[in-house]
## 1
Amino acid sequence: MKVLRVHLVGWTASFRYPIFITGYQPTLPVPPVSTIYGLISAAKGDYVTPLNTKVGYVMRSEAKGVDLETIYMLSTDNSAKSNVYKREFLLNPDLYLYLTDLSFKEIFKKPEYPLLLGRSSDLMMVEEVKEVDLMQKHGNKRVGGTVVPFEEEGIWGPLQALPMYFSNTIPREAIGIKSYYVLENFIEYDGDSFWYDDELDWGVYLHGQENISQKQ
Amino acid sequence: MNNVNGFMLIDAPASALNNAGPDIGAKTENTIAVKKIRRGRGEYVYVSGQAFRFWMRSSLENVFGWELSPIEREAKIAFTAADPFKYPDDDVFGYMRAIGKKSGITLTRVSPFKCSPLISVTPVNIVNDFGVMARHEGDPVPYEHEFYSTVLKGIFSLDLDSVGRFSSENKTGYMNITEAYKKEWEEHNCFIEDDGRTVVLPLEIRAKRASDLIGVLPYIFGGAKQTSHLTDVSPKFLVLTILNCGNNIFMNIAVDDKGEASINVKALKEVILDYRENIVSDVYIGKREGFIDEYNEDLKQMVDEINNTLENVKVHFLTVNEAVSKFQQVVSDFYKR
């Protein structure tokens, strides 16, 4: 299958665990699907959802650090109180995106808004935009650096409830929340639910509309 | 979308620019650790993006007299806090303000200025310094703090189209203002666009805000422990240009060369050539004499080669202050196109 592969690099990235509201803010080791659709929306300069394109991704990083941040808690009487909390972030994120809609090629060559992976300090650079062939490879392959829906047979790892994408309203609503395996490291996988990138030698799980309808 | 793309190197000899508080597990109870990331065997020190933004804000106040948006204030009109007409830092650095459940309106503005943390280019040897407080009667109080010598890299982008342009679109990040600001925008002689959904400040105000933000770079002051370390945090190497897209193209030009921070001149040349179609201004490279002078010849050669090859883009190799003041003019002229 012909897909678009976009390689992005950055210095830092952070993906908040949705269940932590205050106190220590850990980061997920890989972005949720919703972050990926946010990144694609920034590139297009318009709202992109799983209805527009299916996406797969593999992200690795080199280390994890902890930052101290000040937040200002505003109250209704217009006063503000400061508080310091710890927030984790990832060093040198390296992200390969796979998009089934090839028309995004021009969009990633000339992204509309600055590309960010997480928060406003997590700036990203497009390193390469390329059309590649994903193959069906039966038998053993390594998969990781991504999230995979819980029901997928043959996959194992920590589970986390994550959204698929966010609505374009105020307030934003998380849509398609379900359980995902969060695959930080690569594992050996035997099934056929992943496509295979021959050049980089890893499996690619495609998230998108077909996956939603199959599982519902 | 037109963005200023900037890259900088900051020389930090014997510095402790951003601290992470008490070092839990240190020999003594009062050791203050610098912010750092461990990667493999090496430690990389950093200054958080939040801290750098604070340096920018406070320097803009000190150098250009910006009136900064106060965090505490009295409620006089509907929403006084997030006021991008009155306070230039609200405009350029963005805001989020929950107005309350009753009115159901939350104002948010995506920051037109975005910056990375400053991160050391190479792994760093962090030194533990020992000090005492002994000016009082009785036992002296010992304390320790960490510091380092390194070169920090940072990038930033400034969305020129968004500076001084405020929308009331009902989308997160785009609900900058409401009708309650009408008096403000009338006082500032703003233009109204998109059937009233977008309010735009006069060009000269937008040009001043954007060019001040660039112009403050050589005068930027900030960082922790300045009383005992006094680090000059103004950039010693700087690349500035305007791109018509949101790619941050200068992320790979500082590299670790056998433990020394160095400039990958080849990579810098490659991105300028690769993105020639997206670069809408000239490229300004500023370097302070005395800082990584071994790259002077390579940089001059690269500048000549590009200037001989490209028609639409010229590269200027100047001192930091010259590069900044010329580029300030470029930014101002951008609004008068």
## 2
Amino acid sequence: MKRLFGLLLVGVVVFAAVASGCIGGTTEKVTVTFLSTQLNPPEERVFVKDELLKPFTDESNVEINFVPIQYTDLITRLEGEEKTGKVTIDVIGDLHGGMDYMASQGWLTDLSNMPKLEGRTFISTFEKYSVINGKKVYVPWMSATYVMVVNKDAFKYLPAGLTQEDVMKGTEKWTYDALLQWGKNLKEATGRPQLGFPAGPKGLWHRFLHGYIYPSFTGYQAKKFNSPEAIEMWDYMKELWPYINPSSTVWDAMSDPLLKGEVMIAWDHTARLKNAIETKPDQFVVVPVPRGPKGRGFIVVLAGLAIPEGAPHQDEAWKLIDYLTRPDVQVKVLEKTGFFPTVEEASGKLPEGPLKILAQGVQAQASTPDALVAIIPNLGEKGGQFTSMYREAFERIVLKNEDPQKVLNELGPQMDAIFKELGAEAP
Amino acid sequence: MERRYLIPYLLLLPAVLYLLGFIGYPLIQAFYLAFTKDGAFSLDTVRRAVSDYYFWDAIKNTLLFGAVIVPIQLTLAVVLALFMNRAFKGRDLGIYALIIPLTISDVAAGLIWFSMLSPYGFLNKMLMNIGIIDTPIYFFGYQYRMREFLVIVLAEIWRATSIVFVIILAGLQMISREYIEAAEVFGAGYWTRLRHIVLPMLKPSIQSALIIRTLFAMQVFGIVLILAGRDIPVLAAEGFRQMVDIKDPGVASIYALIIAGVSLVLAALYVKFLRAEYLEVGRE
């Protein structure tokens, strides 16, 4: 019996070796399939294929098949592969929220037994988030955040008592009330509303609502969704709206409106603002977001690298992950894409140029003493429902002028239900 | 005898299999997703769909788009086709020009109109340079939903009238000259010929053009998303949102079923009220 088992084992190993192309010398290259929802725009794809992955292939003799993919397509494909047991994906690059969903479905390998990644210290918050339900499901890869960009001309119309330095450094005086007054001044001076937000269907407006202004006014993203502080916040939004460019509801990204001069102050994701800063580095500065009564709420976005359960080339996949998280490689990614490093060793090597403007703004925001860091909550399938509730509240209260208390009374229980169903505490 | 009896069925078989596989199965799946919960019949999903804040608006807006766009397109296409159906110099060129928008996708068409009408787009810049206006006219944004609606109508007419035009023109060219000549002999003027001969004989073409256009109007999606975002919710976009953002396939199926249902009803009405008069057949 034992012999038979042993024989079988040998058979399996030989078959696996032959199937994976390991036997027969080094002539045959292994191809690792790398699916990523990040770095998808055409120019970033070119960078990934030609500059990022080529050196890796040269040093390790591992060929990478980089597949840019949309989140929904990734989920569909991975689900299909996991269910049929024919896994072809080796590495997945996706945002924390997506990883959380995939982990909840049991599709990701536990990485805690993998060899240690030498020479780098992952930022501790990121490290903490990459462990889901006690399982190390991904390695932090890149991070990003949302900031404000100001056209330097706008500084001419600063409200009394607020200086350019206050805004650039994010001092106590740089508040949402100051933003309102600034918006008023700008509209009076130019005749047009000069604030802009990406509130179109593919814009990231909901992130501003739950990750920025809600924490700033209530101290929480969702816990005080329906509270007197929230009402105060919505009243503020209604007051601010006349100074926001009305086309905001169709804008998905703020780079273009900034470059075309349609707005002078805009809030968006760093990656979606990068183009404006690169095109006119002398015209724009990146500044921290304003603070509210409870502090300065802002989101940190985290992308990670994971290996699916049953991935055909686990070792090579780990080699790729090792390569992508090296400090020098992370700096290269920052230079080309505007995604910030996740390892401490990289953040010291700030490159000069437009990127420095971005990095400085991000750093200024991160190091404000009143920072209230928000991580997009791990809601898996409920994530869409969660964000759409903020958008609905905005549409009804600000755009349709419904009574804030009435709207929050209707939506509040639905919000509570999401967290109750997940057994999680509202952030 | 036996075999001859079977042949028609055998010839129909591939089509039937195709329909069952690619239309029948998904349809059953959609009904299943929409009307069951944990394997048993339930109206839970329907309740969820109906209580969605955007549900009734989406139905209303979609029907409204259809009601506004389709008649305009049909009228325009008939007029253009009648014009293009006569012989004149440059006629072929004219037909090509009219058909060009057909090659442009709705998303691309949306982007073209968006950049043209945006506050710093071509139109506003031109008007400002001429001195007609001082500040740009806003066409996009929640407060300007009425304008957004009109821009979408305009973009849709620009983009999709050509498909109606092509069908109508083909229909016109199939009408035999003999009928027209016979009418002329009896002294019928242009309008009489149009009313009593051309239009009745065009009915089959009009019917197919109407059905095709209405089906597309019920599915309107990309162009709305680009020009109005979610300021104007429509059925297809809401279905997409439920599926992709909210991840509720049940509610998404309900939107899909509504689109299918409305299209089916409208198509049936066209068939009933536009019963084609084939002058050639039916006279024993």
